[in-house]
């Protein structure tokens, strides 16, 4: 089952300050991870400063795929996640360096021999993850939560993975916000 394409409408202003549509149509940056076939990143928009400029600037999603948000910025994307397969669960950990490298953050993978899932990773960001279609399981170091359409996860820099234990793809919407670990947490993470 294939999920529908994302349709994006970007607004702006004309020379007189009137609100206008500056672009409408398919997303210009859609990337399937070669190490995890069926995992597709649909890049919607990002900002690189706070406050973000409300202007008619260039499309910030053009260019290579980058997993985390820019420093002091945000990133919005949809991700289609295929069902986990027996092969992926058995051999996926060996492919994660390549997958996270293609996603622009090789250092995000935290998978180790004792990891509960081959996609375990961590980013120094606050992420809002919303299940749009399908179902997903949020995997943490010591627990799991089943997610259905409408479920929202607020991910606060924690080690996690997304496990699709259903028989069809799941689409999630993510908004990632640049963050900094609390100093005590940063110290604890450095000692792990």
UniProtKB/TrEMBL annotation:
Gene3D superfamilies: 2.20.70.150, Jelly Rolls. Residues 119-175 form the Cupin type-2 domain. SUPFAM superfamilies: RmlC-like cupins. Pfam families: Cupin_2 (PF07883). InterPro entries: Cupin_2 (IPR013096), OryJ/VirC-like (IPR047142), RmlC-like_jellyroll (IPR014710), RmlC_Cupin_sf (IPR011051). This is Cupin domain protein. It comes from Duganella phyllosphaerae.
